[in-house]
Structures are given as C-alpha cells and as structure tokens.
Amino acid sequence: MSNRTFVLACLTPLLIFSLAFLALPLVRLFLASGEGDAGWAVYLDILRKPRYLNTLVLTVLVSLATTFAALAVSTTAGMFLLRNQFRGRGILLSVLTLPLAFPGVVIGFLIILLGGRQGLVNQLTPGHVVFAYSVVGLFLGYLYFSIPRVLLTVMAAAEKLDPALEEAARTMGASPFRVVIDVIIPGLMPSLIASGAIAFATAMGAFGTAFTLATDIDVIPMVIYTEFTLSANIAMAAALSIVLGLVTWVLLLIARSLSGATVAAGG
Amino acid sequence: MSNRTFVLACLTPLLIFSLAFLALPLVRLFLASGEGDAGWAVYLDILRKPRYLNTLVLTVLVSLATTFAALAVSTTAGMFLLRNQFRGRGILLSVLTLPLAFPGVVIGFLIILLGGRQGLVNQLTPGHVVFAYSVVGLFLGYLYFSIPRVLLTVMAAAEKLDPALEEAARTMGASPFRVVIDVIIPGLMPSLIASGAIAFATAMGAFGTAFTLATDIDVIPMVIYTEFTLSANIAMAAALSIVLGLVTWVLLLIARSLSGATVAAGG
Amino acid sequence: MTLRLTNTAKTYPDGTRALLPTELSVDRGEIVSLLGPSGCGKTTLLRIIAGLETPDAGSEIWFDSDNVTSLPVERRKVGMVFQSYALFPNMSVRANIGYGLKMQKLPKSEIDARVTEVLEMCQLQAFAGRAIDALSGGQRQRVALARAIAPRPRLLLLDEPLSALDAALREALRDELAVLLREFDITAIFVTHDQDEAMAIADRVAVMSSGQVVQSGTPEDLYRNPKSAFVAGFVGNAMRLEGRCEAARLELAGGALTLPGDGTGQDVFVRAEDVEISADGPLTARVETVTFLGTHYRIGLSGITGDVLAAIYAGQNAPRVGERVKAGIKPEALMLLPQDPARA
Amino acid sequence: MTLRLTNTAKTYPDGTRALLPTELSVDRGEIVSLLGPSGCGKTTLLRIIAGLETPDAGSEIWFDSDNVTSLPVERRKVGMVFQSYALFPNMSVRANIGYGLKMQKLPKSEIDARVTEVLEMCQLQAFAGRAIDALSGGQRQRVALARAIAPRPRLLLLDEPLSALDAALREALRDELAVLLREFDITAIFVTHDQDEAMAIADRVAVMSSGQVVQSGTPEDLYRNPKSAFVAGFVGNAMRLEGRCEAARLELAGGALTLPGDGTGQDVFVRAEDVEISADGPLTARVETVTFLGTHYRIGLSGITGDVLAAIYAGQNAPRVGERVKAGIKPEALMLLPQDPARA
Questions:
Q1: Cβ of residue B94 closer than 8 Å to a chain A Cβ
Q2: Is B28 touching A (CB cutoff 8 A)?
Q3: Inter-chain CB proximity C103 and A178 less than 8 Å
Q4: Cβ contacts (< 8 Å) between C200 and chain D: which residues?
Q5: pLDDT truncated to tens, each residue of chain B (267 aa)?
Q6: Hey, which bits of D235-318 come out as E strands?
Q7: Rounded CA gap, D274 and A184, in Å?
Q8: pTM (2 d.p.)
Q9: Best residue of B207, B252, B257, B259 to probe chain A, by most A CBs closer than 10 Å
Q10: Which of C202-206, D11-15, D41-45 is the least confident region?
C-alpha cells in the first residue's frame, strides 16, 4: 500500500535517531557502572552496604505508601466530584489540581512552611510538631505531588463508567457499599493500576522535593546525585541508577500488562 | 437519594482535610512572599533584576521548545508504531518508554555521559563537541523525559481514531499528507493539547535534570532552591514560586478548556 | 403481583415535565408495553416504577398492598433488563445471573441450583462459564433476562430490551422473548418505540405521547379503534387524507370519497392496506415509487392528497413508476378522528 | 459507468479466504445490492471495488475501459458512504460536502455552487452551517450521501447505509434513499444484510454466502425462483419442511402434502404466507404463538415439521394458543430445491 511506504519513508530516520538518542546513553550508563574500582561487584556493594540498601528500601516503601494513599484519596475525591454538582465544585477541583503547576522544589518548600521549624503546625500546636524533615514530610510532599495526577486520571475513567451497571446492581438488592466493591472499583481498576504505577515511578525518582526536605534522611535519587558530583563515584552512581530504573521499569511493565495496552499513558 | 447521602457522609471530612492540606500551605506561601524586606515589591524585583527575568524567560523558552519537540517526535513515532506491525515493535516501544523509569537526576547524568567532557559525542567527533552543560543539554534532557509520557498519551488517542474517517478522505481524493492534516491531526488535537500542557508543566518544574546539568545556566526551580536554602531569601523564593506556579497553572487551565473536560489527565 | 400507580408525575429541577400525572394499573401476570416515540416519558415512567427516579410529591406507587413510593430501589425486589444489558464485565455469565441471589445472602448451594435452573430455562447452559465479552448480542440479551429473573422479582421491567440487536436478530428474538415472558408467568412492563415489538409481545399496550398515556388497550383494540390521530399514526401507520369534509363526503385533490359518517370538523385517516388500486376507483393518482416486498408491492401515489399516499398492491403485475392509476378506499376503512388541536 | 470484476478474490495473510474468485458486472446507472449475512464477504467485495483492500493477484477490476486494479483509492473517483458515515467532526456540513471538490482543486466559487446544488438536492439547506454533532442520525445519513455524491464520482458505493439508524427511521429513509439514488442517475452498489432494504432499493440483488455470489437477479426473480435453500431462506424467509418425499408426495409428521413435481432427493420449502389455516387442510397442528401484526396474525404451528412452522392468518378471529387446527399448503406454493450438501 502506498500509504505505508510513505509512512515508512518518513519515519525510519526519525526512529533510528530516537533509538540512538535513547538507547545509546543507557548502554553507556550500564557500562559506566562496571568501570569503577570494584568492577561489576559494585552491584553487590549496593546489597552489602547498609547505607545503600537501607536507602533503597526506604525509597521503595515511601513510594509505595504514597501510591496507595494517592489512589485512596483521589478515587474517593474524584468519584465525589464527578457525581455531585454543587457550588464551588469547579474551585475545589482547581485547588486539588493546583500542585500540577508547582515543581518538586516548591512542594518541598510548601511542606517546610507547613511542618518545618517555623511552620504553621509548629506555631499552632503546643507540642512543637516538626515533621517536614522526616519521612512523614517526604511522604506528604510526594502525596501532594501525586494526588492531582491520579485524580484527573480517575475522574476521566469514572466519567466513562456505565451508570446502568450501578443501577443494575441496585435493582438486584446491592447496597451502595456493595456497588462500590462490585461495580465501581472493578470498573476503575485499569486506570487505578496505570495511574498508581506512574505515581510510584514519580515518587521513586522525585529529587526536588527530597533535596529540599531530606536533611535527616536519604532517598536513592539524592544518593545518586551525591555519588556522582560530590564523591565522584561514577560507577556507584551508575549502578544505583540502573537498579532504580530496573525496579521502576519492571513495575511499569507489570502495570501495563495488567491494565491492558496503552492505558498506562494516564497520569 | 440515600446513595447521595451515603457518599456525602463519607467524603466531606476527607475533602475538608484535603483542602486544608492543599490550600493552606499555598496561602502561607503567598503571604511569605510579601514578608521580606522589599514587601510586595518583591514581585517588581523579579521584573527589574535581569538575573530573575532572564532566567524566567529562558525557563519558559526551553519548556516551550521541549513541548513542541516532544509533540512532534511522539506524534510521528506513535502513529508509526500504532499503524505498523513489525518484529521488534514491542522492544522499540519499551525503549521509547524507558525514560519513564528514570528520575531527572539520572536523565541529567545520561546527558553528561552523552554530551559531557568525557561524553560519547566528544570522544567520537574531532571537533570536541560538549553540549551537556548548555541550553542544548537541558533541552535534550527535558525532551528525553517528556517523550515517553506524550507518546503513550498520543498512542492511546490514536488507537481511538475512526479509521473510516481516513478512508473517507482518501475516497474523496485526499493524498496521505492531506489525510494527516485534515483528519489525523484534528482527531489527536485534544490529546496533543493535554499532553503538551503536562510536558510544559513538567519542564517548567524540572529540578533534578537542571541541577545535574546546569553549571553554566540557571532555571527558575534552581533559583528558587538557591534563594531558599543558600541565600535564605525566603520572600524571593516564595515570590518566584508563585510566579512559576501562576504561569504554569494558567497554561494548564487554557489547555484543559481547549481540550475539554478531564482529558488533561493524560501524560 | 398487581401494580398500581396513582397521580405519578416527574418534573425535573429545571422545570421540564418528563411525565404528567399518570394512572396505571397492571394485573397479576399481565405483560404491558409502554409504547411511544423517544422523549415521550416512557422510560421515565419505567424508572420511577423501578425506584431509579424519584417521582414528584403526591405520586403513589403500590405493589399489591405495599406502598413502595419511598422504598429505595434495592428493596423493591424488581428485576430490570437494561437497554445496554448492563452485564458486569468482570464476572462470568454464571456470576452475573447469581448476583441478585448473592445479594439476598442465600446459601451457596441454593444459589447454584437456582442459577442452573434459570440457565436451562433460557438455554444458556453452554455459556455458563463464559466471560461477558465472549457473548454475541443475542446471548447477552438472554443473560440479562436470566439475571433479572433469577432472584424471582415481584415485577419484571424491561427497557427497550431488543433495541441493541440488529434487525434480523431482533425479529427472531421478539417471539422468543414473548414465549419466555409467558413461561416465567410474571407481571412485566416493557418499554419500546417499535409498534411491531409492542404488538408481538404485550397483552396490553399503553401508548404514550408528551409525558401522558394517551390510549391503552389490547393490540387489536388500538389498531382497530384508535382514539386520536397520534395513536392511528403511531400504531399501524395511518395516513391523514387532507381534504374538505362535507357531511359524509370527502373532497380530495385526486377525487371524492364517501365517509362512514358525518366528517365535519374531523380528520380522516386511512392505512396503506386499505387503499386499493383498481380501474373503477374514484381517485386518480400518479405512481411515484414501486417497492417489491415479497408478498406484495408498496406503491407510492401522488396527487390524491398533499403527501405521497402509500398503497399495498398484492397482484403480480405492479404498475410502473410514472403511470397514472385509479384508486379507491371503502367507506368502512376510513377512520374519522378528532382534529389535531395543534394544527386546527 | 460500467463496472466489471473478473476473478476477484481476497485471501488474508493468515489464510482466511474472505472472498472466493468472483465475477460481477454492473451496468451504467444500475443500482445493485450485495445482500448476505455478516461475514459473507460483501463488505470485502465493496472495499476491493473502492480500492480500500488489495485483492489477490490475478484479480481484475475494470471501470468502463480502465483497468483500475492497481490504482490507489484516491485516484479511482468513487464516492463512498460508510456505515458509521465517517463525517469529519472538525468541519461543518458545508465543509464536509465540499471536501472532495477541494481535493480536486476546483475554484472556490465553483465549489460553493456545487455544494449548494447538492445541499438542495438532499434537502439539507437548513443545516449547511451546522456542526456534525448537532445533526440527528437521519440528517447525518443524508450529509454522508451528499458528501459522497458532490464530487460527481464514477461509481457510488454504500456500506450498510441505513444500519446506524433505528428501526422507525430506517424504514422511512429506505424509500427516500431509493428515490435519491435514481435522481442522481449514478451507478451504485450497496451492501446490506437486510433483505427488505435490498429489495426496496436495488434494481438487482446479488445474494452472497461464504465469500461467493450464490445468486443474482431482480428482487422478484430471487423471491419467486430461488436456486438454493440459502437464497430461499434468506430472501423471503422460506422454511424447510422436514419429511419424506415419495415421488410427488411429501410425508410430514402432521400429515401429507402433494408436491408440484417429483421431490425425490430434493428439499421442500414453503413461506409463511402460503401456509393456510383452514378446516379442510390435510395437516394437523397445535398453535404455539399468536402475534397480531395489524393486517394479519402470525401463527406459530408445531407438529407439522421439526421446528415451529409460521403461518399468516388474515382473518379477524385468530385461533388461540394451545388450540389444535388444520392447515394446508397448495402444491404450487411448495418450492423444490437441491438438497443442502452440508446436511445430506
């Protein structure tokens, strides 16, 4: 077909370029991880040295917590906003999606304003509560960042739910709670998986928020930065990047196969 | 309706909490911007001092360039991948979406491996080409980051294009090129606008990539970080955050109204 | 179960009156069709009976001697078949059919037995384990029916149950549905915009227009004794003869006809099967279209009245397009109905 | 334009034979329908003619004296109406209709004049400036037709042009489409799975089954002289009488019938309108269903043959369900057709 020839002719150079541009640096990154003093044993070091392993575990745990919290908040809020028309609904939606407009650094900054030493919570409570520089601050910052993305994806998916399915369940005697369990959650599942995966990947890679907040704690992207620029330990930085990338990529692949096709675009 | 009461009872506390958690720090941020020595004139300072204004303009320009480049590359690559079945298609798609798994810091790192002083390009070319630390490096890093997100959104949208529309145009004598202009681009437009807006917002707020690469140049998120932690100029940091947030938010709102409803979720 | 609605109406918050105050009774085991064009309020009425819409204050809905007006849908024990079927895509055929029984918290063994029984009744045994998206349109329709009937509802409601099927399948399933509904021996109400469907399935048809039930009766009754121009046109496609009535004589553009009674101030209607093309007819017309329909031809005639008048021709040698023919209509085939106030 | 296909076939890469080698000729101005059940290859054949599918090597497609077999679709100058209409949602009605003329690079004034002319022909003047999503189904159908006809194509192709409409509208637009196609005076081919549609619109019907044209002729010809059980069943819904032929006598479960000729080794078919319920009929049956259809009743009879046999009853007092009745079929109404090799 002449259409196909036309498309092929147009795109082949572009694809070759894209591959070189995308795949080549990654190969270089992988090779760099083996070029240090320790050779390929650098990967063993990650598992052996508590500094690296603990940070890796912490990063994964905070990211998972963020993902599930964001899914829970966004699903309930999204369903509520979609099903109810009230004054101020538009404003509420705008506020909920405001964090989309702010970079990670500013989010970190906001968490410090909220929970830092001179923060709002510290000023208002008698117990002198400072959480900004701990895991809690990191979690809140990541959550702040994830909610709008997940929210918009869930709302788009919820709009496409067939209301007749819910009505059918109710005519058969299902309580509103059973309708949520049997109809709404299964209907949203592909979008929940897809946007959850993206939220997880974003949290795993968040740098700005962590850099602003994490004076007491470390996450993997910060360790990578430190090893690369301050310690000039390029091999370890590369190895950590590969591990981080692998963990995230495998999760994205699983999510994409679970939720089917390109739906993982959402978020 | 009892269903509505149930939902309301469930969600009201959650929403109040969300609002406090999301809106309160932002109000605090805005107030903080006026609490410096200059008072509210801090916003005038941004326009008057070349350091701030130039950085703002540069950030916006790089973000716009990234957005349009990512749209162009992703649309052509996405249409090609969707319309053609060939061996290695799955692998190619996986490679194109690999950057999703890497944080900004690692992307910056990759650009240095590609275009830095010890980089691949510098080693391979006789002219000693070093672009990693310039605007070009920043642009490439941002592009690397944006392509997979835009690509997945465009592919999801392209899958839903009605092939009969293209066939109809062709029966009426349209060349493949006219089909792209008259049918495919208009069909993809809402998704292009939505994912372009998200790509722009992400580029405006990128910190990790910029922090790793920008030794010679500055972008707004970095200036915010510097003002906040190094210069302890909290008012200016807050004012810059507000300006950055405003620019991005207005753009997101425009995009959402252009592309209709919650489609802006994509990306 | 006997259903009785009194003074049931529905006004939307924006003031739209979807349903004017309506009285409706359905006897035990009766199958009633709500027939009307889209937007006539038939689906609203069905949804009010199901409990999916709240009627205006003053409305009353009685199931036997229970006033269910304020009972929520999940406690009304109605079975409903949705236009889109609304089968749960995340459950198998068996799980879909068993869902209502599970909600009643019946023991698993009883659920299994009841589902198996319903599967057999609807000839779905072969598909019990299938996923919903592996079913054809006709199979989905039967699963939706089986799912609605499995919990033994007091009343079965069907919203355009055949409209999602293509024409050929729709005709085949129409008879099947009529047989199944009688086998279930259940009080049933179904909504349709298709007069053939209403006539083929229902014991009684309630014709609706603009939020009101305009006439209700057996299919034969509606066809033979329509009380208004709307019913005559909607049930059996009667055409109005535009002309001037003078006592028992109707002057048309193409000739004059004798009426069965005094037609002054009345509109005259006729059906295509009563327009006879014969050489001794009093009307003169030109043949515009000739359509072969197997047992007969449908002939479009111009020149008799304003619009093209359809006639049925049963012979072998149909007239050709452009020919001039004579036609007649027997006085007893002409229907005299009150003038449409909207036009008069 | 005259269309001629020789030896045209389509085999998919996975080996599926969508279309077996087919010969087809369509004369200038003729309106031909490709009729068959879904999956019979009718749409594939239409798409091959349009140039949207590439036929197997050896196929030839001639438009008058041009061999267009390897001409791409955009240079074949065909007009096509798609099943989903495929109107451009980003253009107005006017821009949609003018699109083909714009592609021909006509001057703007000529495009405007031609679009206005087509708008008038299709009675779409009032909608010229509207967006596509502000149109009803019937209006979309007419816009799709207007758009296909505006560039004055050599051949008009229509893929199930009425199937996206609901039943009531479909019947109304069927006649309108038949009149318009004749007004355009263009060679046209349309695909449908609905025998009524094919008969009402086409000059000639090509019945397809399993990738082959099994019989082609005028609607009357196909109805009265089907050459195979498939055509008899698909056109006019003939039913097979399962019984034993002994010379000119057919023994059925419910009695015996006289055949019009020697039926040995042949299958016997009858149509519902030829089964007469009368007290002196030789067949005995039980009434299973009674459906009122306005002019007549359709009665389902069991006990005559394996399946339920449908009969048309034109009187006023139809038999009741469960009654035993007598029925007969005239010898000349019985169709003797070669036995289906798949069953024999």
A1: yes
A2: yes
A3: yes
A4: 291-293
A5: 445 565 566 667 666 766 777 778 788 888 888 887 878 888 888 888 888 888 889 999 999 999 999 999 888 888 888 877 777 777 777 777 778 788 888 888 888 888 877 777 777 777 677 787 888 888 988 988 888 888 888 888 888 889 999 999 999 999 988 998 999 999 999 889 888 988 898 888 888 888 888 777 788 888 888 888 777 788 888 898 888 888 888 888 888 787 754 433 333
A6: 239-241, 244-246, 249-252, 255-258, 266-270, 275-277, 283-292, 297-302, 309-313
A7: 54
A8: 0.80
A9: B207
A10: D11-15
Q: Which residues of D touch C173 (CB under 8 A)?
A: none
Contact D273, D238 (CB under 8 A): no
According to DSSP, the β-strands at D155-159 and D188-192 are: parallel
- Flag if B2 and C72 touch (Cβ within 8 Å): yes
Tens digit of pLDDT for each residue in B157-210? 888 889 999 999 999 999 988 998 999 999 999 889 888 988 898 888 888 888
What are the tokens at A66?
């963020």
Contact check, Cβ <8 Å, B162/D86: yes
Distances C318 to B36, C179, C291, C315, D220 between C-alpha atoms, Å: 97, 38, 9, 7, 11
Going by C-beta distance under 8 Å and a sequence separation of 6 or more, which residues neighbour residue D24?
D3, D4, D5, D8, D45, D206, D213, D216
Does residue D186 have a pLDDT over 60?
Answer: yes
Six token digits for residue D226:
């089907």
Select the highest-mean-pLDDT range: A36-40, A152-156, C66-70.
C66-70
List CB contacts (< 8 A) between D80 and chain B.
167-168, 171
Distance from CA of A69 to the nearest CA of C (A): 25
Spatial contact of C287 and C310, defined as CB atoms under 8 Å apart: no
Q: Considering only alpha carbons, which residue of chain B is nearest residue D153?
A: B172
Average pLDDT over residues C259-284: 88
Which own/partner contact pairs does B91-97 have at CB distance under 8 Å and 24+ positions apart?
B92/A15, B92/A19, B94/A253, B95/A19, B95/A22, B95/A23, B96/A18, B96/A22, B96/B147, B96/B148, B96/B151, B97/A252, B97/B148, B97/B151, B97/B152
Examine the predicted complex and report whether its ipTM is higher than 0.90. Answer: no
> In angstroms, what CA-CA distances link A59 with A11, A42, B146, C22?
39, 19, 23, 65
A225 near B CB under 8 A: yes
Calculated CA dihedral for residues C304, C306, C308, C311, nearest 10 degrees? -40
The pLDDT score that the predictor gives to residue C194 is: 86
Please report where in the chains the tokens 């008899």 appear, as a residue. Answer: D232
* Chain A residues contacting C via beta carbons under 8 Å: 162, 164-165, 167-175, 178, 182-183, 186-187
Q: Is D161 on the interface with B (CB under 8 A)?
A: no
Q: Sheet containing D324-329: which strands, arranged edge to edge? A: D275-277, D324-329, D283-292, D297-302, D309-313
Average pLDDT over residues C174-193: 88
Instruction: Report CB contact under 8 Å: A109, B29.
Output: yes
Q: What residues of C are in the D interface, CB distance below 8 Å?
A: 37, 163, 166-168, 170, 175, 178-179, 193-194, 196, 199-200, 219-220, 223, 235-236, 271, 273, 288-289, 291-295, 300
Nearest CA in chain B to C54: B1
pLDDT on residue B1: 43
Predicted pLDDT at C13:
87
> Is pLDDT at D116 greater than 90 in this prediction?
yes
Contact C99, A169 (CB under 8 A): yes
A174, with CB counted inside 10 A (0-12, 13-18, 19+), is: buried
Residues of chain A found within 8 Å of residue C52, distances taken between Cβ atoms: 167, 170-171
State how far the Cα of B116 lies from the Cα of B123, in Å rounded to an integer: 10
Q: How far is C196 from chain D (nearest CA, A)?
A: 7
